[in-house]
Each structure stands twice: as structure tokens, then as C-alpha cells.
Amino acid sequence: MIAIFTVDKFGRKPLLIIGSVGMAIGMFVIGLLAYYDSIGVGTLIFIIIYSASFMMSWGPICWVLISEIFPNTIRGKAVAIAVAAQWISNFIVSSTFPVLASFSVPFTYILYGIMSVLSALFVWRIVPETKGKTLEEMSGMWRK
């Protein structure tokens, strides 16, 4: 819900980076709390921080971004591939979590925190900002 009011004001890229950082903080702290067997209210707080960070960024914004970022000539196919990749990634995370957690719960959360940091770096370095740009401008960007 927050993203509805912030995505056009702040842009997609800053919100994705901020969300990734918030998600990383949540995962790292949960991993540390699990390492020290300190599961309790603190863990709940950082689960909420992780969830809120996801809900204001990757949850809704990835759908906006994939519909805006691709040139008109390939948009349909590119969106289909991006959506498929997103669902495959969801499946991989869901199916590997139990295996990773059986090995080490703290390691699992630290690994997910690292992935969140990598996603922030990916957005910062590679993903173009689409805020305020027309579809034609985005298509022109890909021609360069």
C-alpha cells in the first residue's frame, strides 16, 4: 500500500534500493538472533522490518518496473520471461529454505541477507530509472 503513494514521487530505483537494504538488515539481524538462540520479540520486529521493506519495494514495484522497462518491440515476450523468472525464483527460495535451514538457520538468513545486498547493488548499477519516462524514451534507451 505504501508503494502506491511513493513509487511516482520517489521513483522505482530508490525504493528498490531502500527496500533491499531494509530486507538485508532484517535478514542479517534475524540470522544473528538465531545464531545466539535469542528468538523472541526482537526476531518478530525484524520479520516485520523485512516484510515492510519488501511490501514497499520488491513486492509491488517489480511488477511496475517490468511493464515499463522493455522496448515496445519485445515487451510481451520480455514481460513473460521476467514473470516466469520471478516465479521460478520464488519456487527455488521456497523449496531450498527447509534444506538450508536444516543445515544452519543463521547461515540461511545471512545468505538471504547477502542476496538482498546483491539485489541493491544490481539495481544501483544496472537497472534504469523509469520514473517520468515514456515507453518511447525507454525504448530509445535500449537502442544506445
UniProtKB/TrEMBL annotation:
Recorded coiled-coil stretches: none
Q: Does the keyword rRNA-binding apply?
A: no
What family is this? Belongs to the major facilitator superfamily. Sugar transporter (TC 2.A.1.1) family.
Asked if Membrane is a keyword of the record, the answer is yes
Its gene name is: xylE_19
One Pfam match = Sugar_tr
Transmembrane spans? 15-36, 42-66, 78-101, 107-127
Protein name, as recorded? D-xylose-proton symporter
How this chain sits in the membrane, per its record, is:
Multi-pass membrane protein
Q: Which UniProt keywords apply?
A: Membrane, Transmembrane, Transmembrane helix, Transport
